[in-house]
Amino acid sequence: MQKRPEDAKKEEQLFIYLQKSYADAQKGIPNSMNKIIEEVCRKNKDIPQIGLWVELFNRLLLQLQRNGNDAKMVIDIVLYKIPWFTSDNHFQVLPQFKKILFTILSMSPSQLVTIYRFLVQKLSLQMLIDSEQTRDDIPCEVMGQSYPSKAALQQQILVMTEAYQLTAENQIVKLSESHKQFIKEILIHHPKADEKLKGMQDIGYGYFPSKNKSKCFYIIKKDNTQEDISYIKGIDGLYNDIYRDKYFKSSNNIHSDAAIQIICEIIQIYKLSKEKLLETLSDLFPHKNQSEIHQRVYATNCMKLSDRIPELRSRIFKMVYIKILQIDSEIKYDPQCNNFIIKTTLQQQLNKKHRDDMCKKVDHLLFILFDYLDSKLGIANKSIFQMELNEDLIFKIFRELQSVFQEIMLKNQYYRMAHYVFLYFCSLPNSLQRINQLFLSQLVQNIRSNTLSKTEKINSLYYLSSLLVRCNSIKSTVFVKAVELLLEYLNDKSQQIEVELEHHLVQMMIFLISTKSPQLEILKNQIHEAILKKSSTLQHIHYDILVKFNEVLLRSKSDDLRQKLIEITANTISKHIGNNCQGDLITNYHSPNTPQKLIYDHESLLSRTSTQRTVVHKNQLDFYQPFNSMTLIYSEPFIKEFYRYDSELIKDEGGSLNNSHVEEKRIPHYHDGEKPQKKVKQ
């Protein structure tokens, strides 16, 4: 539509003013330019006026390009000053913004990384609070009553406490029921609310246990004990929750979708820039110490972006998985408290909340990957057509993750939860079942390899045994073939097998024949003969495995071979008990100086006598790991159909069981059933 003469004249005057202001700013006189920026960036600015200024900035860029002048200042203003994604009015003129972006790229393709970084930042959380409004000025609501600021809420509590007169230093006055509920609404946001409010019966008010005559609230427990608690910390926690929930919002709706759309349009034109985009996505992925919300929103938007750029799907999936590994490596096991701990790079033990945060982050990120795979496979609606349609994609993703497994995961033993992705892949139905054959085959090749390190080979062995025992979806033929190849390797005299690897191989054979005897019936005699030949290694085998093996032998049909094995295992077990020793295979696996080694106090699945003590493992990949679903809450539904829990293993094997040692299903360490529910009202 043709502009009216007066509008065209006004636009021309504004453009001249913009040119002059830019020239002055280049000379170090930024006053006029700052006024223009302030005017353009006002969030209540009329949409037509915003559109007009955007067109003028675009004209200025084109003019600078023609004249060969520096346009860095204009680019910085366009990208970093104007609130495109945080102001609804500015968001309405996004088409003009895209026009400017392509003008910038036509002027200088080297700005591609800068533009990618600007757009990828919109895939994370965005702060939508006005810069002039501080956190303490946010209005809040408690018990149906609104307060305009933190100071107003604090004043209300001070007024409330004037109703309670204290006549002695050690006097604690119980609050009325209405005051009690009011204060409780605030105290549940205290950083130590779980600990402080546990067993609460009443809330009291009295002097703080010090000489400064200050007063505080007290939690009166059911056993009549009293514990002081800070309402100021409760108010701080309340405002932190409101600030996060109300003034930070996920940009994974229309704002992030718009950023993704612009990225895709740029990729269509600059097809060779995909590597730069991947590097940017990885660089801007939230740090492992950032909150679970940041991690989840960013990962979700990355997967949405991968759907728009099919050729990058598998690599983006791989990038997210590597970030999961970085968080997972921070989760360590503490034998003293029989729980997980988190250690920083300085090996300092952090508190329980930080530990729980790490577990939640991994769990949420795994959930996102599982949900993405389920959607591509059509598992939710059992669509075989959809599964066949995306078969190539799934194999491509698996291949990418297999390289991560070989290059990263096998080289150490720090990962506790990320392995679930491989259990998932090994459990896919129909034509995708060959994935578990490929993965098991790779593990067997690793074990038989002459080029991999001892650690990589032993880790491969433990991953293999864990899969064979835990995964319900592996066919018997594949299972038997894997064990057969390992038996062949173990019996091959031409192979120079490391001593530790040989011990672990024998232990694996004993463990599998004890827990999977029906599937291995065809190989039973071969396995027994191999164990008999390697009987000198039995002194290094874990006590529980030997006991279980002895029980299985006693229940099986007797012959000369089995009788010899019964005698040997019984003698070895007697030596273990007499020497107060549980087998040194695992305890000798690590050197004392191994960094970040994990000591796992494993509760036996078998009944113990009073003379038997619990062994301390120094290898986290023992025969029940890595697939321990106790650590998951959100992701477990994706794998529970094909995961065999400890209770199921015992039931299948018909072995004895001490109930106190049964793994509690679906009770993650970071989930506290007694935790008070926070009620945040805006």
From TrEMBL:
Task: Give residue spans, biased composition: Basic and acidic residues.
Answer: 661-682
**What molecular function terms (GO) are annotated for this protein?**
RNA polymerase I core binding; RNA polymerase I general transcription initiation factor activity
Matches recorded under InterPro entries: RNA_pol_I_trans_ini_fac_RRN3
Instruction: Tell me a GO biological process for this protein.
Output: transcription initiation at RNA polymerase I promoter
The record's Gene Ontology cellular component field reads: nucleus
Quick one: where's region Disordered?
Answer: 654-682
Which family would the database say this protein is a member of? Answer: Belongs to the RRN3 family.
Its protein name is: Uncharacterized protein
Organism the protein comes from:
Paramecium tetraurelia
